[in-house]
Amino acid sequence: MLLKSSKINEFRLWGLLLTVLGMGLMILGTAGIVFFGQSGKVFAAIGLVIGLISMLGSLGVYFWAGMLSTSAVQVECPECHKLTKMLGKTDRCMFCKTVLTLDPNKANITAEEVEAGQMVNHHAGHVHH
Ligand SMILES: [Zn+2]
């Protein structure tokens, strides 16, 4: 993971970035026609195609995130006591970014050890299905 956030939130962020990128490219492509006239049309076409692919990609990411979140396990965060969703065995809390795990073997390791490449610190709270 690139960011210190829960996996579902990260998917949403990438979806948003792709949408913004796609829209930006389409706007730039259209602006190309305005500023460069006939020769700008090539750039406009490229911008529109890449922009469209990017937007479709973001749609896919959103769809994937939606699918994943339905299969995510809902747990009560032991730190902030809010209900958060986990993907896989380990994930971060959506609210306080605490690392959570469903694997008892990896529980109760400090955050520093997690940063050092180890896994996980807090044992996930009660599991709600
Ligand atoms: Zn939390």
Automatic annotation (TrEMBL):
The keyword Transmembrane helix applies. It comes from the Bacteria. The chain crosses the membrane at residues 12-36, 42-65. Keywords: Cell membrane, Hydrolase, Membrane, Protease, Transmembrane, Transmembrane helix. GO terms for biological process: proteolysis. InterPro entries: UPF0295 (IPR020912). It holds the Pfam family DUF2614. One of its GO terms (molecular function) is peptidase activity. This is Membrane-bound ClpP family serine protease.
